[in-house]
Structures are given as structure tokens and as C-alpha cells.
Known about the structure:
Pfam families: SET. It is found in: Nucleus. GO terms for molecular function: protein-lysine N-methyltransferase activity. It comes from Cladosporium halotolerans. The protein has two domains: about 5-265, set domain protein methyltransferase, domain 1 (Alpha-Beta Complex), CATH 3.90.1410; about 285-460, set domain protein methyltransferase, domain 2, CATH 3.90.1420.10. The strands form five sheets. Strands 1-4-9-8 form a four-stranded antiparallel beta sheet, with no helix packed on it. A two-stranded antiparallel ribbon has the order 2-3. It is an alpha+beta fold. The chain has helices at about 5-20, 70-75, 80-95, 100-105, 120-125, 135-155, 165-185, 265-275, 290-300, 305-320, 340-350, 350-360, 370-385, 395-400, 405-435, 445-460; strands at about 25, 30, 40-45, 55-60, 185, 215, 225, 235-240, 240-245, 260, 285-290, 325. S-adenosylmethionine binds near residues 38, 41, 183, 224 and 273.
Amino acid sequence: MDDGSYTDATLAFSNWLQANGTTVSEKIDLVDLRAQGAGRGVVAKENIAEDETLFSIPRATILSTETSSIPASISAEVQDPWLSLIVTMLYEYQQAKDSKWAAYFDVLPADFDSLMYWSEAELKDLQGSAVVDKIGKAGADETFQEQILPLVYANVEAFRAQSLSNEQLLALCHRMGSTIMAYAFDLEPAGGAAEQSQEEWEEDSEDGMGAAVLPKGMVPLADMLNANADLNNAKLFHEDDAVVMRSIKPIAAGEQIYNDYGSLPRADLLRRYGYVTDEYAKYDVVELSEDLISETAKEQLRLSDSDLSVRMTYLDEQAGLDSGYDIAHPDGEDGAFPEEFCVLLNALTTAAPEFEKMQKKEKLPKSDLTPASLELLYTMLLRRRAEYGVNDADSLRTQLSNSENSRRKATALQVVVGELELLGKVAAHVQEKIGSGNKKRSADTFEEEAQEVAAKKAKN
Ligand SMILES: C[S@@+](CC[C@H](N)C(=O)[O-])C[C@H]1O[C@@H](n2cnc3c(N)ncnc32)[C@H](O)[C@@H]1O
């Protein structure tokens, strides 16, 4: 969009907010931050004290299934809060200038860098990261085809969709879904808790699996705040008639006003919001899948299929197994390894007679990792490292400094380098716990040994 129309759209949106009962502090401004790669954002024009109201938006101005003019006979067909908002937005968007929210749609994005929009070739730059399997495009396509498109076709006039092809409709569903993923809020009911829930921003993948029960809404202006994990200085509060954005610390003139997207690893930031920043590096994780855990345990501990299955089933019954476990920064708040993962490792490495005793008493091992579990874990880390391919973090870091990289390539490299650095750090942490003088390793460094594992895997 050229600068003129971008500024016109911002101005029209600000006028629209005012015409629709929004009060905005004189101390803030909606500005163009495209030069910083951050779209629009809100900045302080003057010093702001803690707990000042930055703006207040009447509930009627929020775009939701409840406030929309979508016929109740249509919206009643969709129960899921996520899909319900997609259908509602589709309806309002199709009303074009006749929609109450037309000026709002003009400042919402039409293009996205979130992973749903990446090509297969672009996704290759994320090789190894578990995020690639979490995009959920096929699931979203199926949900849209099965639940939204038939509803639109059955009400084609109401949706003003006579001239839209199947493909165009599907693309619009994705566009609305991706907008919700990066912009929507969970709406607390009037008369409910005064404060926003912990997870204010949309949580789930586009297929709506596991969607929260609270209705979702698009909150104009509140969603123009960018996010920063370290510099978060504002928060949305849900009051009876309005939602109110307040400062949560003093903000100096010229500073950007930031919301918070929660403790998201950069891979998830990229998946849902289409950008990454270093402040979120501390939340990076590397996932070890249940398959990798089972395969490694089977080989290293020489467990038969049935031995492994007995142990995994027992663990699942006693504690519940996850499809994968996130390894985090060792110096982070919760340490590197989730407790239930440590229990799983210890259960896998317990000698058979003791395991049987444990089963009889319906007990689980403690979570302090035993020497055998640490060795098993180290092998898992090597294999996990091998899944990222042969590039080491240093060579990827060099690629990262190439100014010719597209924005998507640069963000993918940041994610992968972050995960590789984390793996190296965790491997060193495990090696330190194992101590020197133990098992002789086949290579001097974790990286070299992982390259051997990768080469062996490529051969087989
Ligand atoms: C809720 S919107 C914020 C408003 C957005 N900048 C706009 O112009 O519409 C979320 C989107 O803003 C962008 N964003 C948020 N925080 C950012 C940041 N710290 N740096 C760069 N882009 C950011 C991302 O594109 C994200 O998907």
C-alpha cells in the first residue's frame, strides 16, 4: 500500500473509532512503523504515568458474533468460538462499505508472514524445528470446507458471495483465521472478572482444535499494539460496558506501547504472528517427540517392542504421556527438562526387576535423573540434533548475516539457530552432569558426534 493510502486508512480508522464511542488519550498516537517492519503501532506522545487509561472501547464497537449484524439463523449454525468469529468476519467483510467495521477492515492485513502462508520451499529453511508439523494447514482447509463453505453457499445472498469461487472463499477463510490468530482477544463477559485472562491473544491453531470456551472478538485499536516480552507496558481490562487499555508502568514520551503475547518460543511467534524478535529467545524450546524417545530407548537400552510398550503403557496410565516434551533453557525459570519427562526417562532406564516392583506398588520413579537416564538423554539430544541436518549453528549464523535474505528466510534462520544453540547448551549441561571419565565418546564435540549420527541416518 502506498504511503498516502496507508495514512488515509489510519486517519479514517481513527475517525471511525471516535464516531463509534471510543475515547483515546491525547497522549498516544497510532503511527506507521513499517520502516521497522512492525506495521502500525501505538506510541506515547507525552509521558504517561502508571495506571492511566490509554483508550476505552465500548463493547458494541468490538467485532464479535454478538455485535455483528450477521443473522442469528446463520451464526447459530456454528458453536466453536474460533469458527464463529471467522464466519462473522467473513460476513462483515463481504458487506464492504455497508459494514459497521468497514474502516476497521481497511487497517487489518490482507497478507501474512505467519507459517500458514509459507511455501514448501520456504518451510525447508525451518528443517528440524517441530513447528513445521504444527502449522495445521490441511486440518484448517478440511474444517473450512466441511463447516464454513456449505454455510456460506446455503446463505449466498446474505454473504454477498455469488461471485466468489470455492478457492476465493477458502482463501478468505484463511485470511480471517490468520487475522484472528494474530489480532483477536478472548472476551470476558460483562459483569465477569475485571482483568483480562492470562492468554489474551489467540492461542490455538487455525483448525480451532482445543479452542478456549470464551467467545472471541476483534478489539479495534487494542489490536494495533505490537508486542514485546521485555517492554510490555500496557494491558487490556474488561469492564462491563467497555474494554479499557491501561498503562501498567510509567511510559516515557516517544516510547512504543507494547502488549505481551505470553511466553512464546520464537518458532510459535513466527507460526502465529509471522515475525520474531530476540526478546523471545529465552522462551525457545526444542521438542523431543514420543517417537524419538521410544526409538532411542529401544535401541540404547535394548528393549524389545513389548518391553517398551509395557513401560510406555504403564507410564501413560499412571501419569499420562504427551506426544512430545519441550526442552528449554537450563537457566530458565523451570529448568531444562519437564518433571514428567525426567520421570519417563527414569522409568525407561529402571532395571526390569525394579520396574516390576514399581508396577506392583503402582509407583513412579523420582524425577532426579539417574546416570543411565542422563546417558539416554544425551543420545536423544544427538539424534534430535541430527534431525536439523548437517548445517551447524555457526554456518547458519553466517547465512543469517547475509543481507540478501528474504524476510522469511531471515526469520527461519533465527528460529533454527536459536534451537541449535539451545540444543548445544542443553547437551553441555547434560554432559556436565554425566561428568568426565565416563563413557568414551566417538567424537570430541556434541556437534561432531551429531554429524556422525546424521551421516549414519542418511546412509540407512
Ligand atoms: C496485534 S497486531 C499489532 C498491529 C500490527 N503491527 C498492525 O499493523 O496491524 C500483531 C501483528 O503485529 C506485528 N508485530 C507485533 N509485534 C511486533 C514486533 N515487536 N515487531 C515486529 N512486528 C510486530 C506482527 O505482524 C503481528 O502479527
